[in-house]
Amino acid sequence: MKLYAPAPRPAPAPGQRIHNAMTCDVEDYFQVSAFAPYIDRASWPSRECRVEANIERILAIFERHGVKATFFTLGWIAERYPAMVRRIVAAGHELASHGYGHLRASDQDRAEFDNDIRSSKALLEDIGGQAVLGYRAPSFSIGHANLWALEALHEAGYRYSSSIYPIAHDHYGMPDAPRFAFYPHGPDGLLEVPITTVNMLGRNLPAGGGGYFRLLPYALSRWMMQKVNREDRQPALFYFHPWEVDPGQPRPEGLDAKSRFRHYVNIERMEGRLEQLARDFAWDRMDRIFLDPK
Q: Distance of CA 290 to CAs 145, 156, 218, 284, Å?
């Protein structure tokens, strides 16, 4: 399938500070894809949920620094914590969909995916009281094998997706996808906004958050996002999870070494780094940056 050129953006005036997109994938520690072999979905309702307290900490950071963000929220979480969802909306943030139960798009057929994205959208809109325009697939699970998912999102009423990560990774990735916002099916269709990368020596390197942000020195992450702003003149797109600011979360037993490392590396430093990130850049919601650029 041919992928269309990046979406045109107004050129920022010389010296104008670029607003970057801050995003949070609202899920709890026991719902991450890497833990799926170790944690049965049937056990989710009985596990200690820590997402409310973590979201409050995040909202407080954003309030202190004047950050507005997009919260890609699981329907499973929203259904159980509607007051938390309304708190996000009341603080001026954008509510978007992360699907209902953190099922990868690549593990669903067209009918299952269609039901997931429509039901989660309706649920979030009912709870949050605002239109849900954006979607992010769990584990960035849209790629060459299921690009039909982008058509399904458009048909379901979404205006944009942030579900493709243009890197090579053992769990996800579409390294030949455009690095910046593009229309997969032309300008009248859905807008896809990939997670930020920098291109060095012909390879895309991750620069938009997640475990890489905790693993790499903060100064390097900051430099990469500044490079995107300065040289590409594009907004960076950053993402993280509520459980990443929670060093005291329960730790499941039996995890393999790679999953344990990825999930917990430098987790005790994340809240401080998020504070620093909020200070070092200008941030806004996905819808205001990409759907209605000024």
A: 26, 19, 26, 10
pLDDT, one tens digit per residue, over 156-213 is 999 999 999 898 766 666 888 899 999 998 888 999 999 999 998 888 999 999 888 9
pLDDT value at residue 265 = 93
Burial class (CB in 10 A: 0-12, 13-18, 19+), 53: middle
CA dist., res. 78 & res. 82, Å (int) = 5
Give dist(CA 34, CA 4) in Å, integer.
32
Instruction: Specify the pTM.
Output: 0.94
Token output for 134: 């954006």
Give the C-alpha separation, 256 to 34, whole Å: 10
Contact assessment for residue 139 and residue 164, using Cβ atoms and an 8 Å cutoff: no
On whether the CB atoms of residues 147 and 182 are closer than 8 A, the answer is no
Question: Angle 163-102-72 (CA atoms, 0-180°, nearest 5)?
Answer: 55
CA-wise closest residue to 20 among 253, 265, 197, 225: 225
- The radius of gyration computed from the CA coordinates of the chain, to the nearest angstrom, equals 18
CA distance linking residue 75 with residue 207, whole number of Å? 28
